Amino acid sequence: MVMFKKNDERYVEVRHNIRGGVGDPVSRHIFSPEELGGRAEMFTVMTLQPGESIGAHEHTANGEAYYILSGSLTVSDDDESRVLSAGDAQFCADGHTHAVRNHTDEPASFLALILPNR
Questions:
Q1: Residue 10 to residue 110: CA distance in whole angstroms
Q2: Which residues pair with 43 in a beta bridge?
């Protein structure tokens, strides 16, 4: 199956206080889990405005990768936090906890991919 999707064809969702975080991050879904044949649970570009965050949450039965597209974000993985910028990445494996916060004065975007354990 071949699938193409133009930028303006994506489903855009404003999500409030994700996982106890702050603000209204915007999710621009690239492909739905159904379109991906269940190979991923989420494949989206998240945009966080200054001060917005996604609260700490544990991954069970899956893992999540973040790839920073623009700006800088403070990303926590278990008890360690780092500032990541465009081109940097983080992977939260099954059984671990992570969070992300835009600590800057500029919007920041990242690719988020949740992969089920196989």
A1: 16
A2: 31, 113
